[in-house]
Amino acid sequence: MKKLQTLLAIAMSGVLMNAAISASAQPAKPGYATVIRVKGNVTYSLDGGATKYALVPGKFLEPGATIYTGDDGVADVILGKALDLPQASWAPQRVSLAPDSPVRGLVSYHSSAEQNVVRLLAGSTLVIDKLTTTSSGADTVSDTELDLKQGSMYASVKKLSPAAQYLVKTPSGIAGVRGTQFYISLNEDGTIKDVSVYHTHHDEGLVLAVTGAAGTTDTYLIKDGQVWRPGMAAPIPITPEVHTLLQTAFSALATSFYQEATFDRDRTQFLESSDFGL
Questions:
Q1: Do the Cβ atoms of 126 and 120 come closer than 8 Å?
Q2: Residue 175 to residues 11, 45, 48: CA-CA distances in angstroms?
Q3: In 3-state terms, what secondary structure has residue 260?
Q4: Taken in order 139, 140, 144, 150, is the CA torsion positive or negative?
Q5: Measured at the alpha carbon of residue 198, what is the angle toward residues 28 and 231, in degrees to the nearest 5?
Q6: pTM recorded for the entire structure
Q7: pLDDT along the chain (278 residues), means of 10
Q8: What's the rounded Cα separation, in Å, for the pair 26 and 144?
Q9: Element (H, E) at 69
């Protein structure tokens, strides 16, 4: 895995941004994953799965935590500082009912700045390996490493500083991004099923380093509006239908607050089972 990370770092330095510029912010501090939305059976563990607890909106998770979604589970998580949500306090003194009395739930939270958000889909396992933030007012995540063990996820990553890093590890490869909205799905054996990029923030795209059965490593640059699957020599454009599905998903993630209407189960199920028209 270290060899794969080294190869990815080399690839990213060549096609993305010059990471030699040092950040001007104060020293990085441990970050938090703030759970903003949970649907269905979702649990978390702090000891590698030995003990699991129910995950609820407002929970803060530190690096080392693992999130598990069941067959009907979905979770939205903001990565960065611990957010002061109405439903996310260290002590539950700020929980209140939604303004609309027929609706039983918690009040909504509208973010004041763009956030790094992950939506973990059903049947997934995600480990938060590393998460640090700077102390600047922009709430920049300086170092994020996620380990997707199984399942699939959407991730919306804001424009990062040149010295920042955002990696998503899988059993068979690593994805490196700097300002990208992407979707990644794994097969049951943990190998990559497909990776698609919906939008990039004026960057080259997502760099994916994949280790094959023979132990060789191939690197791909997946640009805006492209998808890559095993067996492809290079990424290809996504279909208009899938583009619409991704647009729906990332429009929901763009608003970082708990809202039942943001989840469209039929569309999500289609995207998980779709072959992207190939």
A1: yes
A2: 11, 24, 23
A3: helix
A4: positive
A5: 100
A6: 0.76
A7: 51 42 56 90 95 92 95 92 53 43 41 74 97 64 88 90 87 92 95 94 86 87 95 95 91 58 42 40
A8: 17
A9: strand 66-69
